[in-house]
Amino acid sequence: MAAVKYFTEDHEWISVENGLATVGITNHAQEQLGDIVFVELPEAGTSLSKGGAAAVIESVKAASDVYAPIDGEVAEVNGALADDPAKVNGDAEGAAWLWRMTVADDSQFDGLMDEAAYQAHIA
Amino acid sequence: MPQSNDAFADRHIGPGRKDERTMLAALGLPSRETLIAKTVPDSIRLGRPLDLPEPTSESEALAELDAMMGANRVVRSFIGQGYHGCHVPPVIQRNLFENPAWYTAYTPYQSEISQGRLELLFHFQTLVMELTGLPVASASLLDEATAVAEANGIAFRHHRGKRSDIVLAGELHPQVLDVVRTRAEPIGMTVGAQAIGDNTAAVIVPWPDTRGVYGDHTETIAAAKAAGALVVAVADPLALTLIEPPAGWGADIAVGSMQRFGVPMGFGGPHAAYMAVSEALTRLMPGRIVGQSVDAKGRPGYRLALQTREQHIRRDKATSNICTAQALLANMAAAFAIWHGPEGLRAIAERIHSRAGRFAAGAATAGLAIAGRSFFDTVTVAVKGKATEIAEAAEEAGMLIRVIDADTISVAFDETSSEAELAALSALIGASPADAAEIRLPAPRDGERLMTQPVFHDNRSETEMMRLLRRLADKDLALDRAMIPLGSCTMKLNAAAELMPVSWPTVANLHPFAPARHAPGYRRMIDDLDRWLCEVTGFDKVSFQPNAGSQGEYAGLLAIRRYHRSRGENNRDICLIPSSAHGTNPASAHMAGLEVVVVKCTANGDIDIADLEAKAMEHGDRLAALMLTYPSTHGVFEQGVRLMCDTIHEQGGQVYLDGANLNALVGLARPADFGADVCHMNLHKTFCIPHGGGGPGVGPIGVREHLVPFLPGHVDNGSDHAVSGAPQGSASILPITWMYIRMMGAAGLKDATEMAILSANYIAKRLERHFPVLYRGRSGRVAHECILDTRGLKESAGVSVEDIAKRLIDYGFHAPTISWPVAGTMMVEPTESEPLSEIDRFCEAMISIAAEAKKIAEGILPRDDNPLVNAPHTADDIAADDWPHPYSRMQAAFPGGVGAAKFWPPVSRIDNVAGDRNLVCACPPIEALAS
C-alpha cells in the first residue's frame, strides 16, 4: 500500500504506511526558517498528543516548536539529524524526517490537509 | 554655585544651546517644553522639579564622596566566605579596568566590532575548562550564589521538570544557600533533601565547604550517579590550579566565583561567576557562550553562540532570564590568568595553601581542634567560647576573621596575606605557625598539563601584556570611538569623574561581610541613593541587591508573589505581558513561578487596552501582575498608561514597571505616581554605569510601601529571600550613579531626559523620508528612541537589516538595535550625550546607505555583490591585489566622508550558521594543536 501524506496548518507533514506514521516539517517551513543549526527530537517511547510540542527546530535566530499532528507514541527518531541538522534544509520532506510514531486514532487524519490543500494554504 | 566652565550637566549633555535650536527648528517647534508637552501625556507629568540636592562640580563631588567613603575602615580581611583579597595587577587595572575602550563597550551582539572582548572572553572560557576539566564553559554568570541556582535550573530542565530534590553533600556558604532556596521554591524545587533517589535532580558538592573543608563525597557521588542525578561542584577556581579537576571525580557541572582572579572584593561585587558543564548539558546552559566561527573570507572569528537558548529568543522557555553577565570582570579574570600563567597561578595558590597549612598545624599543635583534614586556604578552628573575643582582638590588630558561632572561627588566607599576618593570627589563638606535613589538599592534578595554550605563556612581560590589551581593545568599537545608538540600551556617557571612585581603596577593598561599623561611608552613599532614586521614581524604598536588570525583574516579581501569598491569595499566578515586551519579562515571570499570558498590541504598536481589560477580567482572582515597559518598547509614550494600571489594580493585581526606558521619564514623570507598584532601574542605562562590554549591570528595584516587607533580605542581616550573594549586590559601582545624580541635580537630570527625547525626534525627522518611522505617539512624536522600518529595502533591493547594520561599521558606527522589538527593523536611541555633529553624521550615513540600496534596486549594482551584502570591509580585503567588485575600494572603505571616524573591522561578516552548527568554545590545549 502506498504511503498517504497529510499536512498541518503548522507546516508539518505526516505520512502513514502500514500503521506507522512518519513526521517532518514541510519544505516551505524549512525555507521560512532558514539555515537550520539544531534539531531536538523526542525520546522513543514518549507519548504525544495532537497539537502538543514534540520537537524543536532551531535556526541561528529562532527556535520553533514542531507539534504532533496526531496522538500516538514515538517509535523511532531520525538520529542522523543530530550530527547534520542541515539535512532539514536539504531534504525536509524526505531523508530529514523527524520521528516515526504509532497512530492512536485514524479519525484524526480527517482534519488534516492533502498536498493540494496545503499548497493552497501557503500560497 | 559651580562655575559655568565646570558645570557637569553641560559636559554630560552633548548638544549645546545652538544645537538645540537647530534641532527644534528642524522639528518646527519653538521650544523644548513644547516638544515635551506634545510628547509626554499631561496626565502623568510631574509638574514640579525633583527635590534633589543642588548640583556640584566634578571636583566638589569627588571631594564630597572621598570624604564620605573615607569613613570606611579598610582593614585586612581573612573572612573568606566566597570573597578574598587579591592584587589587581596594575597593568590590568590601568589598561583594562580603567580603560573606556573596555568598559564603555556594549554586549558583543555585533560580533565584527567586538572581536577583542570576544577573544578575551574565549580565553576566560578556556581557562574555566582547563580548571574544571569540563568541555563547555560560558562567558560568566552574575555571582557564585546565582550560578549555583542556575546549575539547579539546569538539573531541573535536564530531568524535564520531573525531579525536584536538591541534595547538599556539604555545607554551602550561607549566602549561597539562601539564594539557592529563594530560586528553588517558585519553580517547585526543594533544597536539602537527605536521601538520594528517583526524585533527586542534583547533588551539590561544595568544593570546599563553607568551613574550608574538602570532604570525602565518594559514596554520595556514586549514589548520585546511580540515581541519575547531576553532580554540581561549587569549586574555588584558585584551588583547582593545584587539585584534580571536578570532571575527574564525576562533576557534571562546575560553578564558582572568579573574584579572586584579580577583581577587588568591592563590598560584594561586581565579580564574574564561572560555569562549565558536560557536553550533554550544553544547550541547557544559561547566559552567553562565545563560540569560534569563520568570517566570509574563512578567517577565524568569534561570536555569541547558541543564542536560541536565551531569553531574547526563547522568552518564557529560555534557560534563564540572564542577559548581561559580567563581561568586564570575566575579562579581568582572564587577563589575570594570562598575566600569571599556570606557573604563576599555582605559585600563588601554593603560597596561600602553605600559610593556611602552617596556621592549621600550629593550631593543632596548640591543642585546638581543626575542622577536617583536607583544605586549601580556609581553616576553621574550635575555640571554646572565645570566638568573639579572638575576633575582637584580631580587629584591634587590623584584621577581620569570620566568627561562625561562639565556639568557632575561621581564617581564610589569600594572595595578599603575609607571613607577619600568619604569625599574628596564630598568636591570637595561642599558637605559632608549625610544619604542615599532616595537612593536605585533595588529590593533586598534573600541573604540567594545566593551561598549555600559548596565550597563557606568551605575555609575561608588561610590554607584551600592555600591547595584548591594546591590540584587543583596538578590535572593538566602544563609546570612546563613536556613537552606539542602540535602542533600549541607552549608551550614554560614562563620565570619567563618575568612574574614578570605583578604584579607590575605600570603595574597592571592603569585604561584603565586614562589620557595619566598618562601612559607614557605604551606608551613607547607599542611603543617599535610596532617597534620591525614591524621589526620581516616586517609590518608598529601593533595594540595591539585584545585580542586573533581569535580577531586578525577578526580585520585583518575587516581592509581588510574596505579597499576594501574605494575604492568603496563593492562587494569583498569572502574569500579563504585552507581546512587545523584552524577552527577559516572560523569562523572569517563569522563574518566579508565574504563568505568562500575552497581551496583544494594536496595529499602531500600543498595548491593546481592550485585550488587556479582557484578560485582566478573565483571570480575575488569579491575576498576579502586569509587566509593563514605559515608555513602550516601541518608543512611544502611550496615553492609556494610567488606565492600564487602574485596570490591573481593580482585579487585585500588581503593576511591575520594566525600567528599561526610565531615562525618558526622569524629571518628567514618576512610575509610582502613575500606578506602578514596583520598578527596576537599570543603573547601567539611565544612571551612567557603563555596560562593560556585556556587564556588569545593576538593577535595583523601587517599591511602594506595601511591598517593602517583601524586598530581598540577606542572611548577613538575619533575613532571607536574597537574590544575590552580596547584601548590596554590586556595591562598588554604585558610586558611579551617586556621582551622576550629585553632579546633575534636578535640573540637569530633566535637561538630560528632554534632550534625549529631542535628539530622537530630530533623528526621526531627518530620516523619515528615507526610512518610515514605524510607531509614533500622539502628535506624531516619538519618545527617546525610534524604530526605523528598513523592511522596504529587502523587497526593493534584497538588502536586509543585518546588511545595513554591517554597512554602518564601514561608516564608523555601531549599529542600532536590529530586529527588536520588530523583526527587520532598526531601533535608534541617541541619548542626551551625543553631540549634534555625531547625530548628523549618523543620519548622513543612513541616508547614504539608503542611496546605496537604491542603486541596487535600480540594477546599477548587483544584488549579490554590492557594498551592503559584502559589508563590513576589512583593511586587507581593500588592500588585496585582486578587487573583483563592481564598486570602488574608496566606496567600500571610505563611504560618505567617514573621515576621522574610520574604523577598520578586524574581520568581515561572521558566519553565524557555521558557528552554531559546530560549537567551538575554547582554545584546544597545546598537545591537541600539535596533533
**End-to-end distance of chain A, in Å?**
30 Å
Mean pLDDT of chain A: 93
Euclidean distance between termini CA atoms of chain B: 70 Å
Percent range of helical residues of chain B? 25-40%
Radius of gyration of chain B: 27 Å
Across the major sheet of chain B, the strand order is 2-8-7-6-5-3-4
Q: How many β-strand runs of chain B?
A: 23
Low-confidence stretches of chain B: none
Report the count of strand segments of chain A.
9
Biggest interface, chains and residues, is: A-B, 12 and 12 residues
**What percentage of amino acids of chain A are in beta strands?**
35-45%
Rough outline of chain A = globular
The secondary-structure class of chain A comes to: alpha+beta
How many DSSP H or I helices of chain A?
Answer: 4
Instruction: Give me the strand/helix succession of chain A.
Output: EEEHEEEEEHHEH
Query: What is the overall shape of chain B?
Result: globular
Q: Ranges of chain A with pLDDT <50 over ≥5 residues?
A: none
The number of helical runs of chain B is: 31
Oligomer designation: heterodimer
Helix/strand layout:
The complex is a heterodimer of chains A (123) and B (931).
Chain A: E1 4-7, E2 12-17, E3 20-25, H1 27-33, E4 36-40, E5 47-48, E6 53-59, E7 63-67, E8 72-77, H2 80-83, H3 87-90, E9 99-102, H4 115-122
Antiparallel strand pairs in A: 1-2, 2-3, 3-9, 4-6, 5-8, 6-7, 8-9
Chain B: H1 8-12, H2 17-27, H3 32-39, H4 58-69, E1 76-78, H5 90-97, H6 100-103, H7 115-132, E2 136-137, H8 144-158, E3 165-168, H9 174-184, E4 190-191, E5 200-207, H10 218-227, E6 230-235, E7 253-257, E8 273-277, E9 290-294, E10 300-304, H11 311-314, H12 327-365, E11 378-382, H13 387-396, E12 399-405, E13 408-412, H14 419-428, H15 462-474, H16 496-499, H17 505-508, H18 520-537, E14 541-543, H19 549-566, E15 574-578, H20 584-591, E16 595-599, H21 609-619, E17 623-629, H22 641-650, E18 654-658, H23 671-674, E19 678-680, E20 701-703, H24 734-767, E21 786-789, H25 791-797, H26 801-810, E22 817-818, E23 825-828, H27 836-857, H28 875-879, H29 889-893, H30 912-917, H31 926-930
Parallel strand pairs in B: 1-12, 3-4, 3-5, 5-6, 6-7, 15-16, 15-17, 17-18, 18-19
Antiparallel strand pairs in B: 2-8, 7-8, 9-10, 11-13, 12-13, 14-20, 19-20, 21-23, 22-23
Helix pairs in contact in B: 2-24, 3-24, 4-18, 4-24, 5-12, 5-15, 7-12, 7-15, 8-9, 12-14, 18-24, 19-20, 24-27
